[in-house]
């Protein structure tokens, strides 16, 4: 039996199956990247709901694993060399899981780095910009009389979508014929932008062709459908 007692996070969210990879997350666009990846790979795991609405990611136990206080995070009892490994940052986790399973990341070095660059495009651009637009359009920021912040993020989000639109011209997936962690990283954010955030009109989403078709293909995948609901909301 694997012993995870040395990790404070495992004491707050006890593992029923300590031999499986432990996921600490919430079904946000960042959180579902990892649950989708785990569903796609078939790697055995156990999901724990970290209720960010109750600031559970800022508890001492969670911060012991991720000092940045953000979901998702994982604890793999079978890390490199067989030792347990804790890991945070969704992009790093996607790369780790791809390399651990040999799935959804090109094997050739050039293709590998090309896919990783598109993961970084999501991490550094799409995620932060779409998230800020969501705040200023849907949440507390929507009540600000000054609409310049919202419009700034809407303009940049629209630009990023068109970068993705151009990339997908003639491609089913970001890397071409193969579905990779670049798609897994990005699908939830585009879905949220036009769905939960309701910002499609602000960014001219209906003017696009390739991004909506790509999103539809992605959302049709059974593993994506499952992963979008993991972990369950309280």
Automatic annotation (TrEMBL):
A Pfam family hit: GST_C
InterPro entries xref list: Glutathione-S-Trfase_C-like, Glutathione-S-Trfase_C_sf, Glutathione_S-Trfase, Glutathione_S-Trfase_N, GST_C, Thioredoxin-like_sf
Transmembrane segments: none
GST C-terminal domain span: 108-234
UniProt domain GST N-terminal: residue ranges: 18-105
Gene3D superfamilies per record: 1.20.1050.10, Glutaredoxin
Protein name (record): Glutathione S-transferase N-terminal domain-containing protein
UniProt lineage: Bacteria, Pseudomonadati, Pseudomonadota, Alphaproteobacteria, Hyphomicrobiales
């Amino acid at each position: 039996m694997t012993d995870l007692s040395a990790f404070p996070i495992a004491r707050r969210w006890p593992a029923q199956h300590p031999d499986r990879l432990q996921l600490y997350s919430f079904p946000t666009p960042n959180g579902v990247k990892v649950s989708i990846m785990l569903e796609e790979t078939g790697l055995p795991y156990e999901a724990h709901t970290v209720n960010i609405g109750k600031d559970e990611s800022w508890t001492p136990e969670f911060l012991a694993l991720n000092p940045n206080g953000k979901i998702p995070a994982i604890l793999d009892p079978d890390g490199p060399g067989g030792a347990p490994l804790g890991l945070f940052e969704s992009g790093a986790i996607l790369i780790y899981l791809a390399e651990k399973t040999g799935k959804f990341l090109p094997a050739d070095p050039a293709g590998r780095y090309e896919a990783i660059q598109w993961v970084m495009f999501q991490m550094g651009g799409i995620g932060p910009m779409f998230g800020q637009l969501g705040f200023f359009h849907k949440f507390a920021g929507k009540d600000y009389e000054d609409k310049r912040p919202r419009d700034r993020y809407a303009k940049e989000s629209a630009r990023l979508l068109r970068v993705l639109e151009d990339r997908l011209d003639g491609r089913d997936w970001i890397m071409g014929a193969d579905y990779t962690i670049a798609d897994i990283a990005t699908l939830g954010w585009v879905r949220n932008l036009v769905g939960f955030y309701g910002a499609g009109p602000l960014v001219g989403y209906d003017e696009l062709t390739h991004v909506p078709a790509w999103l539809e293909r992605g959302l049709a995948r059974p593993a994506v459908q499952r992963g979008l609901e993991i972990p369950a909301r309280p």
